[in-house]
Amino acid sequence: MTGVLRPEFDAELKAGLAVVGGMFPPTITPDLIPFMRTSYASQPIDELLEQRGIERQDVVVPGHLGDPIEVSVLRSRTAVGPRPGVLYAHSGGLMFGDRFSGLDLVLDWVDQLGVVMVTVEYRLAPEHPDPYPREDMYAALTWTADHADELGLRADRLLVAGASAGGGLAAGLALAARDRGGPPLCGQVLDYPMLDDRGTTPSTGQFDGVGVWDRISNETGWDALLGDARGGSDVSPYAAPARASDLTGLPPAFVDVGAAEIFRDEAIAYADALWRAGGDAELHVWSGAFHACDIFAPHTVVGQSMIAARDAWVAKVLGD
């Protein structure tokens, strides 16, 4: 889209975009889903976990409709006593990625804060459209809370977290847990969350064919999840949390987003709606940041700042 005014990318981040584009093209259409499932698949993680002194336990648990899904439970070998817990939803536009995608950015929570982390292999669209991804996540949440004692985690210190599509799933989890009388949550980490299927914000129109995850990519993801319902009146707020009309009674939220990405406006609006509902939110809008730049360029000043701010908030919320 020519002639569109938009924020500039941070100079250090812009230098890395050409490299990122080979793995994660700016525009993802349905025909690219198989490529993305290969390109965005996580690297083997066992060596990294070993280096950081983190144990991994893979467990098959009931997902949506009782179907089996896999989760991995991560805990520090040196942690003692019941520890805070985090249920993690991975990124990938609801169409690709796996339970280890982007996980290296939050392993500090496990080996430095002593968190017990449960990361979920929720099922992906379009083969498994709404409500499968969100209900797989909710089933994993209830399983985690029900097995808190044997997992060695504190039921009063349970937090949901996710990035991009996973951030939207985490927000939907918080809404569903409130409405269904589900497990009490002490916080929600919403990293550049995918919240709104309607695609009507100004920032949605500012990024076509540039950066990471443009307008067309977003339409591809929501179409895969919702089909013909996308943009209509019959979409659940658990799937698209920006549609929620009542944000009262939700746990504190950490919301961060890039100033140079399509999710900027919906993330800001969601934090504002939490405040207007009397809730607590910490909002960071990172100047010059493209979508998920902390995943793709964690060595940069902006990437490091994003990770540090997130870690500090989690440490505060999970602390006694």
What portion of residues belong to β-strands? 15-25%
Number of strands: 8
Counting structural domains, the number is 1
Annotated CATH homologous superfamily:
Alpha/Beta hydrolase fold, catalytic domain
Q: How far do the termini sit from each other?
A: 50 Å
> Helical segment tally?
12
Order of helices and strands: HHHEEEHEHHEHEHHEHEHH
Structural class, please?
A: alpha/beta
Average pLDDT, all residues: 96
The helicity comes to 25-40%
Low-confidence stretches: none
Query: What is the subunit arrangement here?
Result: single chain
Largest sheet: 8 strands, mixed
Tell the overall outline: globular
In what order do the strands lie side by side in the largest sheet? Answer: 1-2-4-3-5-6-7-8
| Main CATH class | Alpha Beta
What report would you give on this structure?
The chain has 320 residues and is α/β, with parallel strands linked by helices. The chain has a single domain, classed as Rossmann fold. The chain is 36% helix and 18% strand. It is built from twelve helices and eight strands. The protein has helices at residues 11-23, 33-39, 46-51, 108-111, 132-146, 148-151, 165-179, 202-206, 215-226, 264-276, 293-296, 301-318; strands at residues 54-62, 68-76, 83-89, 116-120, 153-163, 187-191, 253-258, 281-286. Strands 1-2-4-3-5-6-7-8 form an eight-stranded mixed beta sheet, sandwiched between helices. Helix 4 (108-111) links the parallel strand 3 (83-89) and strand 4. Helix 5 (132-146) packs across helix 7. The N and C termini lie far apart (50 Å). The mean pLDDT is 96.
